[in-house]
Amino acid sequence: MLNFEFYNPTRIIFGENTIARLDELVPAQAKVLVVYGGNSAKAFGTIGEVTKALGQRKYVEFGGVEANPDYLTLLKAVDAIKEHELDYILAVGGGSVIDGVKFIAAASQFAGEDKWAILEGAPISQALPFGVVLTIPATGSEMNSGAVISYRERGLKRSFASPLVFPKFSILDPSKTLTLPERQTMNGVVDSFVHIVEQYATKQTGAAVTDEFAEGLLRVLLQVGPELKANPNSVQARSDLMWAATNALNGLLRLGEVGDWSVHAIGHQLTALYGIDHARTLAIVLPGVWQYKLEAKQAKLAQMARKVFGLEGDDERELALATIAKTEEFFHSLGVGTRLSDYDLDVQAVVAVVANLEKIGATALGEDKDIDLVASTKILTSRL
């Protein structure tokens, strides 16, 4: 098992009817920017619950944060903070809203004029505090310190991380996900699944405790995905998905392990260029990465076959290949396509994605840093 350090200060409040607790969680004198995405947060009453819980606190609403939050939109929120002299932020939504708020929190305190520099590695020394009301389980952003931001005008999508942008608290009410369209719910299952395997299906490091955490969460997702497709009104299944998604990326699953994240790096470019849902880009790229890195990942994929899919056998290679096939079958059962052609993309998309990878310097990806531009081309070509 590799050496590790673990730190996570986010307070979790889990359960139904917990939004009212904002009154005790948000400082009494706070002046709050309430950030959300589309109209559903208002239409279904969540924003009303949030503002009611804020009581007499000054607040300003900022809606319209996109799926895969756009840099230029977020700059408008930074301007709103300065204009209204606000000092606290509430993210009401899923991973895109939360990621956007992390950037807003950092950018509003960033001395440099070009805020995109944060996404290019410029250090941040302070950030506004913020809390979360989660409405879409998927990314785990409600309990981690990373964010991914798009710059659509430039066709870019990049990430940043800092211990300064951990949420102070996150309210997880599974009943708030009952109104989600099936597509978003299934995306959440796939996103969580890939978050787990990007940390698990790499090398054998002897991190038995972490492996057990990951395998247990994967088995939960294999169960709740079909349950929610058949019965979207199951609060129990939604509770399991919400907590699994949070634990998939709150730092626990990286302890003692070595991460991959090449699937995300390549998938991000498909979103940046073609607007494909983040989870669906992962479903496209993952099988290709596993096939390309079969020899290096064989032992862990065979372990996954036995511990997650319940398969038996002595041939490690066959078990590893069975894991790839079973994973792709699982995504298909959720209605998620796993080929570029499922999204009307052809070889020209391969060329464009690889060009974007070169533009951002993503030329040594994966746990072994051996997925270069040639390898990325081969992986994407295999997914046509």
Q: Could you provide a short overview of the structure?
A:
By secondary structure, this protein is an alpha/beta fold. It contains 14 helices and eight strands.
Rg result: 20 Å
CATH topology type of the largest domain: Dehydroquinate synthase-like, alpha domain
What proportion of the residues is helical, as a percent range?
40-55%
Query: How many angstroms separate the termini?
Result: 37 Å
CATH superfamily of the largest domain, called what? Answer: Dehydroquinate synthase-like - alpha domain
How many DSSP H or I helices?
Answer: 14
Whole-number mean pLDDT: 96
Number of domains: 2
For the largest beta-sheet, the strand count, sense and barrel status come to: 6 strands, parallel
So, CATH architecture of the largest domain? Up-down Bundle
Compressed to H and E, one letter per element, the order equals EHEHHEHEHEEEEHHHHHHHHH
Shape: globular
Please report the first level of CATH classification, the CATH class of the largest domain.
Answer: Mainly Alpha
Per DSSP, what share of the residues sits in E-state strands of 2 or more residues?
A: 5-15%
Residue runs with pLDDT of under 50 for 5 or more positions: none
What's the β-strand tally? 8
Oligomer: single chain
Strands across the major sheet, in which order?
1-8-5-4-2-3
